[in-house]
Write a structure and sequence with these properties.
Elements (H helix, E strand, L loop, with lengths): L5 H10 L3 E5 L3 H14 L3 E6 H7 L2 H15 L5 E8 L2 H10 L3 E4 L6 H17 L3 E6 L3 E4 L2 E3 L9 H11 L3 E4 L4 E2 L10 H11 L3 E3 L7 H9 L2 E6 L1 H17 L6 H23 L6
Parallel strand pairs: 1-2, 1-11, 2-3, 3-4, 4-5, 5-8, 6-9, 10-11
Antiparallel strand pairs: 6-7
Helix pairs in contact: 2-4, 2-11, 3-4, 5-6, 6-7, 7-8, 10-11
Bound molecules: glyceraldehyde-3-phosphate and zinc ion.
Protein name: Fructose-bisphosphate aldolase class II
Pfam families: F_bP_aldolase
EC number: 4.1.2.13
Length: 286
């Protein structure tokens, strides 16, 4: 069933695992991610960025794809459809009214007071609809769709500010930027575990780790032990899909049936997602 993230993340936090947010770029992603979740008996979050929603034809199209696949597949595991890096109150409202069960309001580029006011407004609307909300403080580096943060701008969240934002807004989960990056890392990631621990200890809210692509397993496990209950992955699925599509096209230069080259790409996404679910410990937690 399509549900909010609230209960799945509370359980993950209590039981010491993380639920994966896998970004959905089109139909094939939804197929691969839902199939992986059912096979692994794992809760799952389908992340949809504003850019991806635009690409698919709108928020309503993304919801319709996920809902109709869940009916066809007879999905039994909990599934959330979540707006990734929502840029404004209006976009969050649009997603909520289109049937999203969760939204992120990313006010991380605003001064603290503005971020709090904006997040609060989104929470008020979302909670009326039973929709969960994720907020962010600090700045995650790298690029995802329209969101570009260069090295100089990337910043670590300040624990006292995190506490203030969480207390004043009543968000369901929280993404403190602590050195993770969207897209591939330049060298090894340098995550601020001390601050992660501090933020979790003073807030006790499920934490979210963005930029899941390229983070070593030991760092993922450490993050989970310090309160991370959600890990976002996008680029790694894109890379594995594209590699499989490229191989299929290279192997048969006269191929033209999209099912014959997109199919292997979809299978590659599914296998990557299964690997992440096992790594995050969400398998058999549905
Ligand atoms: O919001 C989505 C993610 O943080 C994805 O990051 O593309 O580096 O895996 P990634
Ligand atoms: Zn992100």
């Amino acid at each position: 069933p399509l549900v909010s993230m609230k209960e799945m993340l509370e359980d993950a936090k209590e039981s010491g695992y993380a639920v994966g947010q896998f970004n959905m770029n089109n139909l094939e992603y939804a197929q691969a991610i839902l199939q992986a979740a059912e096979e692994e008996n794992s809760p799952v979050i389908l992340g949809v960025s504003e850019g991806a929603a635009r690409y698919m034809g709108g928020f309503g199209v993304a919801v319709a794809i996920v809902e109709s696949l869940m009916i066809e597949y007879g999905t039994t595991v909990p599934v959330a459809i979540h707006l990734d890096h929502g840029s404004s109150f209006e976009k969050c409202a649009e997603a909520i009214h289109a049937g999203f069960t969760s939204v992120m309001i990313d006010g991380s580029h605003y001064p603290l007071e503005e971020n709090i006011a904006l997040t609060k407004k989104v929470v008020e609307l979302a909670h009326i609809h039973g929709v969960s909300v994720e907020a962010e403080l600090g700045r995650i580096g790298g690029q995802e769709d329209d969101l570009i943060v260069d090295d100089a701008e990337a910043a670590y969240a300040i624990p006292a500010e995190c506490k203030q934002l969480i207390e004043e807004t009543n968000v369901d989960c929280f993404a403190p930027a602590l050195g993770s990056v969207h897209g591939p890392y330049k060298g090894e990631p340098n995550l601020g575990f001390d601050r992660m621990e501090e933020v979790f200890n003073i807030t006790n809210v499920p934490l979210v780790l963005h930029g899941g692509t390229g983070i070593p397993t030991k760092d993922i496990q450490r993050a989970i032990s310090l309160g991370t209950a959600k890990v976002n992955v996008n680029t790694e699925n894109q890379i594995s899909q594209t590699k499989a599509v490229r191989e299929a096209l290279n192997a048969k230069p006269d191929l033209y049936d999209p099912r014959k080259y997109l199919g292997p790409g979809t299978e590659a996404i599914k296998q990557t997602v299964i690997g992440k679910m096992r790594e995050f410990g969400s398998s058999n937690r549905a």
